[in-house]
Amino acid sequence: MINININQNFPDFEKFAQTIKQKFEKNGEIIADNRNIIKILEYNQQKVVVKSFKIPNPVNRFAYRFLRKSKAKRSFLNAQKLIDLNINTPLPIAYVEYFQPLLKESFYISEYFDYDFEIRAVLKNENFKNREKIFKSFISFTYSLHQKGVYHIDYSPGNILVKIKNNQYHFSIVDINRMKFIKYNNALRFKNLSRFSATEKDTTFFAREYAKIANINETYALEKLFYYHNKHQKYIENKKRLKKLI
User: Are 207 and 218 in contact (CB under 8 A)?
Assistant: First the structure.
């Protein structure tokens, strides 16, 4: 069984969605191949991004059939919610689910966003042009997400795309299947931001800049961001150690 849901603004993509499995296997440029595979495809002279989610384990296949929304469906619905909140993310076109009878494969289709760089590139290069200005704009963007109740669980450097328009930096968030819409307390603000903290210098800058925008005590901001940053780093290190043992 196949389940297809098309954004009403993209009715011409019905045929594309119906054959997405075959098109994805045979065509497209791979831009990511980790747990999931992401490709750029073209349809009716329009570039689109298609994300093929890894086939879930048996327990999750059952859960995604009867108990929870699939990752593809969550991506689609979260994108619609973000756009309603006036937050940039590539426009959702469709999601497609294949059941046998449990969920086997799922695809999320969105518009291609022609970005200039990821925040990751700025973090890795201390000599990146206009680095401080970009970081200030990024912290302002993050604060606006928090004010609107958006908790992006995978809020990390590779999931923030940046486009320069009229000498201004415009941010778009991707990889949005894991997301909550909540009311923030101050601790959660810095927990959400902690994955972006790279060097001690950058962490300090982010904490101070966020504190200034949000009118939060600077000492508190520094303490919380460093706490969550160090906690996240320990988690990553333990995960690496575990992989070596397996």
Answer: yes
**What is the CA angle 112-114-119, rounded to 5?**
110
Q: Render 218-241 in DSSP notation, one character per residue.
A: HHHHHHHHHHHHHHHHHHHHHHHH
Take residue 161 and report the two structure tokens written for it: 């795309």
Distance CA 109, CA 64 (A): 19
Burial degree of 99 (CB within 10 A; 0-12, 13-18, 19+): middle
CA distance 172 to 118: 10
pLDDT (average), residues 6-16:
95
User: Residue 25 CB: number of other CB atoms within 10 A?
Assistant: 10
Place of tokens 């302002």: 140
% pLDDT > 90, the chain: 81
SS3 91: coil
Residue with tokens 């191949």: 33
Q: Which domains does the chain have, with CATH numbers?
A: 2-111 (3.30.200), 117-237 (1.10.510)
For residue 92, is the peptide bond before it cis, meaning its omega torsion is within 30 degrees of 0?
no
Residue 58 pLDDT: 87
Q: Which structure tokens are listed for 127?
A: 């000599």
Per-residue confidence (pLDDT) for residue 65, from 0 to 100? 86
The mean per-residue pLDDT over the stretch 71-91 comes to 97
pTM of the model: 0.92
If pLDDT is split at 50, 70 and 90, which confidence band does 25 have? very high
